[in-house]
Backbone:
């Protein structure tokens, strides 16, 4: 992993990798270079056996990410956009380890889509989510229409996408899109607590569980059940499965090795 990035900060807290979007002067707007750096840093954590869970947050307190960098995008052609780094979003989607978004302040446009790319969301009570692209004459382009429709349902997603309305953290939680709403400024602390609970589990089981849950959004019920069963059977080949069950029998805490 590079010693330094231009637009993100990278650190470790025990077996949790943390990436902070670090453009507070621009409310952490997502330019192409930032998204590319983010994908690279997360991919490095994904390959690192010492890291078992990841957290993404934003610097400055006012925003997780307040959207794309409009100044960067305003003069682009369709080909510029196609070649401009959208593959980084696909890389983030393919990561095997769980990712938790720690959201404080605005998560708008690409910032909302980035949070939706994550596996869990912890939000401060001042967090605001939205897809305001329609106000600029465009639409979400990094999965917003699809992920919102699959989680909020057609009608609520339509309202968000067609009006650009901002939604509170509590309302998002009420609809099942936010795991926890915490006091303002506590989102990273609480996200790290959650990440460490996840990281304490058997690493291979964590990866296969994430794969199985995600399959529910991309396959039929029968196909999803087939993926779940195969992953369940596969875990009986791991040392961690033996350790976990033996620890349960012996009434002790398991010592998972990721093998």
Residues:
């Amino acid at each position: 992993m590079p010693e330094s990035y231009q637009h993100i900060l990278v650190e470790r807290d025990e077996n949790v990798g943390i990436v902070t979007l670090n453009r507070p002067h621009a409310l952490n707007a997502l330019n192409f270079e930032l998204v590319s750096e983010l994908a690279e840093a997360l991919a490095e954590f994904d390959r690192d056996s010492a890291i078992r869970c990841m957290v993404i947050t934003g610097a400055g307190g006012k925003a997780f990410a307040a959207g794309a960098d409009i100044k960067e995008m305003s003069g682009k052609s369709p080909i510029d956009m196609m070649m401009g780094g959208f593959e980084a979003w696909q890389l983030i989607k393919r990561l095997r380890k769980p990712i938790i978004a720690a959201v404080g302040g605005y998560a708008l446009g690409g910032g909302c889509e980035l949070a939706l790319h994550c596996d869990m969301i912890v939000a401060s009570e001042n967090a605001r989510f939205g897809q305001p692209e329609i106000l600029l004459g465009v639409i979400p382009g990094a999965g917003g229409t699809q992920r919102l429709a699959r989680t909020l349902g057609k009608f609520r997603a339509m309202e968000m996408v067609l009006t650009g309305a901002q939604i509170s953290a509590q309302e998002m939680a009420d609809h099942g899109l936010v795991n926890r709403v915490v006091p303002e400024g506590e989102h990273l602390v609480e996200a790290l607590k959650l990440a460490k609970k996840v990281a304490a589990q058997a690493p291979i089981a964590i990866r296969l569980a994430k794969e199985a849950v995600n399959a529910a959004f991309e396959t039929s019920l029968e196909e999803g059940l087939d993926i779940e069963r195969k992953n369940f059977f596969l875990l009986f080949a791991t040392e961690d499965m033996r350790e976990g069950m033996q620890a349960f029998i012996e009434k002790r805490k398991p010592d998972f090795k990721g093998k």
Summary: The chain has twelve helices and ten strands.
